[in-house]
Amino acid sequence: MPRPRKHHTDRRTKRVELRLTEAEEAALVRQAADDGLSVSDFIRKAALGKKPVVRKATPERAAFIKGLAELGKIGSNVNQIAKALNTDLAAHQQISVPSELMTATLYALQTLSKNLLKHLTNGSQG
Question: Which domain of life is it from (predicted)?
């Protein structure tokens, strides 16, 4: 589900340019990363005292998010296989994959996905 659209007064449409030395830019990027923020959010926070809307994911959290996305893709593939097998069943063709194996695989994927999601929402804030 896409995120809700922002009200037109909340959209950031103005750009500000800033000239920095290479050392200043490197320091800015490093400080933003240390705070888990994008450079834009870091500057906004420093200049305006505004709390950032979204923190960048820590490497651990990013890995969990990527893993959860991959599990979603695998689950989709398993569902497509199950649909093909059910189509074969309806056409009275021989099925080579036991339904117990498909059920166990889907259950394992669902369990792993739930555990990853639980860790993301409760165990790894950041």
Answer: Bacteria
Nearest-Å Rg of the Cα atoms of the chain is 23
pLDDT, one tens digit per residue, over 67-99 is 888 888 888 888 888 788 788 777 777 777 777
pTM over 0.90: no
Map tokens 């450079």 to a residue: 39
Alpha-carbon distance of 31 to 107, in angstroms, equals: 43
118 located within any domain: yes
User: Which residues, at least 6 apart from 28, have a Cβ–Cβ distance to it below 8 Å?
Assistant: 20, 39, 42, 43
pLDDT (tens digit, 9 = 90+) per residue, 20-46?
999 999 999 999 888 888 898 889 888
The number of folded domains in the chain is: 2
